[in-house]
Amino acid sequence: MQRVPTIAGTSIERLDVDGLVRLTVKIGSQSTPESSRLLTSDVFQVVSFLAEAESFELDRAVLIDVQVPTLADPAMRAESAAFLAACKALVHAWVREQQGRTCTVNMLISLVTQEESRTRSLEYFADECGRFSHGSVIDLRETA
Amino acid sequence: MSSILVTGATGGIGSAIVSELRSAGHDVLTQDVRASEQFAPDIVGDLLDPEVIAEIATLAEQHDISAVVAGHGIAGSAAFSQTDQALTERLMRINTVSVIELFNALEERLVRVGGTFVAISSQAGLVSEANLGVYSASKFALVGWAEEVVENSPVNLRLLCPGATDTPLLVASLQGAADARGVSYDVVLAERNASTPVGRLGRTAELARATRWLVELEEPKLVIAPVTGGEVLH
């Protein structure tokens, strides 16, 4: 039996810019017949990053920045949606676990093409006045 | 007469679901990774094995399956700092990926017969909990996946999101927590009960009845059903 294609080519990169520690996850648009990496090893990379964030200084802001491609395949869109929901759960669990003892963590979801809105959002989360946002999951796609 | 496939059928909740469905007159095909002392499932095999999924797809045709209850899953708690790759991948593969792969393997059949797919999520799939980060992620993922699938698939999707339920798994978990704190099981149980507005754990029979309701419900396309004693409001 042939397996339904899953997402391949996701890139995950950590960037420290202007006080904002950002984990940028660019969900891949390629497909593979293999079992989902996005929902296993890629989820672990987010877990690992959040575990590391426990040791960050209190004045740091952390952002999980997930960029979603346009996916034609419905099964891959559903896999992508599952990943976004998993990341949201991780951010919320992290906030509950830390109880304010560490830096702020938020999550930004955008389409790959929403560069300008993403840049403005990154500026907000890097800003000192963005620090009251904690555990927020902002989905820019809703207003795209 | 069409049948209902139940995975994780020997577990505390799974076995109650099988009993409930059979009591209501449904023909039930059962799967689990192993047989229990009380119960030998029709299919014994690991859903992480593509050959087992393929076998289920074949049996689904032979047994005229019209509904699936994905009742399998595992628990797993750890703080982020204690969560390793093996635990993460195991929780995500069993609780999420195998459910999606089971759906994908049976979707064509379920579309053909106007069928229903019920997945057992958790209240942790609606509200994340401390020290349950990856477990919550694995259950949230099912909700996110279902909300997207329903946009394209005519299969009826139902997610049952149980709260703390009186199963051997939970009793062992509470006992472990009691041992770690040096208090009695009854103390931990009383604290757990106090956190739930109805003041007690859920019963497997209650979840089994909720599952039958969801299986038999003909509309709408997507139902997300918290059964949590009021602990999680959704």
Helix content of chain B: 40-55%
Element-by-element helix/strand order of chain B = EHEEHEHEHEHHHE
| String of helices and strands of chain A | EEEEHEHEHE
| Total of helices of chain B | 7
E-strand count of chain A: 7
Query: Which residues of chain A form runs of ≥5 with pLDDT under 50?
Result: none
N-to-C CA distance of chain A? 38 Å
Cα end-to-end separation of chain B: 36 Å
Question: Main beta sheet of chain A: strand number and arrangement?
Answer: 5 strands, mixed
Mean pLDDT of chain B: 95
The portion of residues forming beta strands of chain A comes to 25-35%
> Which two protein chains have the largest interface (Cβ within 8 Å of the partner's Cβ), and how many residues from each?
A-B, 38 and 45 residues
What quaternary form is this? heterodimer
Spatial order of the strands forming the largest sheet of chain A? 2-3-5-6-7
Q: Low-confidence spans of chain B: pLDDT under 50, at least 5 residues?
A: none
Number of helices of chain A: 3
General shape of chain A: globular
Please outline the major beta sheet of chain B. Answer: 7 strands, parallel
Report on the architecture of this protein.
The complex is a heterodimer of chains A (144) and B (234). Chain A is an alpha/beta fold and 144 residues long. Chain A has helices spanning 41-53, 74-98, 115-126, and strands spanning 6-8, 11-17, 20-26, 30-32, 61-68, 104-111, 137-139. In chain A, strands 2-3-5-6-7 form a five-stranded mixed β-sheet, with helices on both faces. Chain A is globular, with a radius of gyration of 15 Å. In chain B, α4 links the parallel β5 (116-120) and β6. Chain B is α/β, with parallel strands linked by helices. The termini of chain B are far apart. At the A-B interface, α1 and α2 of A face α2, α3 and α4 of B.
Give a brief rundown of this model.
By secondary structure, chain A is of the alpha/beta class. Helices cover about 35% and strands about 25% of the residues of chain A. Chain A starts with 5 loop residues before the first strand and ends in a 5-residue tail after the last strand.
